[in-house]
Design goal:
Elements: H1 3-14, E1 29-33, H2 40-56, E2 59-63, H3 70-82, E3 87-90, H4 95-107, E4 112-115, E5 127-129, H5 132-147, E6 151-157, H6 162-175, E7 181-188, H7 194-206, E8 213-216, H8 219-231, E9 238-242, H9 246-253, E10 259-262, H10 265-281, E11 302-304, E12 308-310, H11 315-321
Parallel strand pairs: 1-2, 1-3, 3-4, 4-5, 5-11, 6-7, 6-8, 8-9, 9-10
Antiparallel strand pairs: 10-12
Helix pairs in contact: 2-10, 3-4, 5-6, 7-8
Length: 322
């Protein structure tokens, strides 16, 4: 059978109705692995995973540490692989830790899709999430507008996560056009948002006029930066946050956070489980092939679920839509 024929047959298979429950085994289980799974962001992701499972009539498990602990996430992934599920969705907190295990799952015939944060050097089949460079570029444009094209900026990030590095790259690309905006510090909070609030307190105590804006590349830092500013009655700083957890939205409403970039974790897991289900029932010829280099690949390299900026102008509409 020619490669083109195989591709057409696989494409037809993907078009079969997703809601047909006859193709599913009684023990068919899919596992979602993430880090700090009690965060509101991951609760949204869990809701999408659960809703998709109900539609498909399959079993699911959601596993991972409740605190930021990449090694514990690695242990959760290793356990998931031992259970030999029909497929795995995994958020990659540290690619260096998880790449080997992802490759082991693929070698064992278990489809693996990365979600929200990628391990691009692994053999994962593809990535679902935000185009983080574009999201960062969008944030950089808004930052320049809010700063009136001039000022000093501090960023908060987690250095190990590729998605946050991509966001920072997007911000830098946008800010190239504004030579009077200076990134004076990049703070690695390492999964501990208290480092963000402590850094803000230190800056305000020692150099209160030095920093004009704080940019948070991950979800939790925004809340902590807002609290630190509010406790000190500081109102002249720009704060850009990430994601749309309830605390972040409340601080936008209060005028302390200027804007946030909202992702779609519900959509990520909803789409991710459907993709895994198709890959389990209609697998490509080989999971181990490098499909990103194949012009006739039966799977995508990346699914962008989109992002938006939320500020006071559209906050009410966003809350109403949830």
């Amino acid at each position: 059978m020619s490669r083109w024929t195989r591709f057409r047959l696989f494409s037809v298979a993907l078009a079969l109705p997703l809601l047909s429950c006859s193709r599913h085994d009684s023990n068919e289980t899919y596992i979602f692995v993430a880090n700090k799974i009690q965060l509101p962001y991951w609760q949204q992701a869990a809701a999408g995973f659960t809703a998709s499972a109900a539609q498909l009539k399959v079993h699911i498990k959601i596993v991972g540490p409740t605190s930021y602990d990449p090694k514990a996430e690695q242990a959760a992934l290793e356990q998931a692989i031992r259970e030999k599920p029909a497929g795995i969705l995994v958020h990659v907190a540290e690619p260096a830790l998880l790449t080997f295990d992802i490759d082991q799952a693929i070698a064992a015939g278990i489809p693996v899709i990365t979600l929200d944060a990628d391990a691009p050097a692994s053999k994962r089949l593809f990535f679902i999430g935000t185009n983080n460079v574009e999201a960062g570029f969008m944030g950089g444009q808004r930052l320049a507008q809010l700063l009136k094209e001039k000022g000093n900026v501090v960023f908060f990030t987690i250095s190990e996560q590729n998605n946050l590095s991509d966001r920072l790259r997007g911000y830098r690309q946008a800010l190239v056009k504004y030579p009077q905006i200076h990134v004076i510090r990049i703070v690695d909070i390492g999964g501990n948002p208290d480092i963000a609030s402590n850094t803000v307190a230190e800056i305000l105590a020692q150099h209160p006029g030095e920093v004009d804006a704080f940019v948070c590349l991950e979800a939790q830092a925004g809340r902590n930066v807002a609290i630190a500013l509010n406790e000190r009655h500081v109102q002249n700083k720009i704060v850009l946050a990430m994601d749309a957890d309830p605390d972040t939205l409340d601080w936008i409403d209060k005028g302390v956070i200027s804007a946030t970039i909202a992702q779609k974790p519900y959509t990520m897991t909803m789409v991710g489980l459907r993709a895994l289900d198709d890959l389990h029932h209609y697998p490509p010829p080989r999971l181990t092939d490098t499909w990103s280099q194949d012009s006739f690949a039966p799977i995508p390299a990346f699914i962008d679920t989109g992002s938006d900026i939320i500020d006071k102008s559209n906050l009410a509409a966003y809350r109403q839509s949830r």
